[in-house]
Amino acid sequence: PELNTEDHYAYIVGYPDGNVKPEGNITRAEVATIFFRLLTDESRDEFWSQTNPYSDVSEDDWYNNAVSTLTNAGIIDGYEDGTFKPNGNITRAEFATVCAQFDRSEIDKTFHFSDTHGHWAESFIERAASLGWISGYEDGAFRPENYITRAEAMTMINRVLKRLPETEDDLIPGMKRWPDNQPDAWYYLAVQELSLIHISE
Which residue has the higher pLDDT, 175 or 181? Predict the structure, then answer.
């Protein structure tokens, strides 16, 4: 399956209170829905599904199409007990694994974190890091079992999509602004970029 890297859709719409909550967590269902929206039309049609093997994802759930389609495409998976845990927060390891599934080319895995050796997601984490999509912390750790924040997830998705504004001049004048995303935040540009729509001609 391929992601649409040409048309820059706004894939985050925020909350009813007008905030985007960059430092909050993000659920597995929300992540599935984001990547489902970002699929190319061709990939979405090819892997479209409304059925899945999970005991806790039913046909009338708002995230069913996304979860079913991405499962059919081999991008996401559930747990050994047959559940998907759609409302559970996603970990950094799980998120890195989802990102890594979108590039299966031969690469030189040159990144090694101090706390991922032997982890079930080690190869996916190293792949995503080698592609420049994810990074660890200053102490050399990746903290795979930590829940990923919305800002961290947005930053990684932007890297996957090659949506990489370097200064505010790269953003669109008159853009929507979030009360809880201020210019002095490390994630400011990433959050603003994902809120913008610019379609290629």
Answer: 181
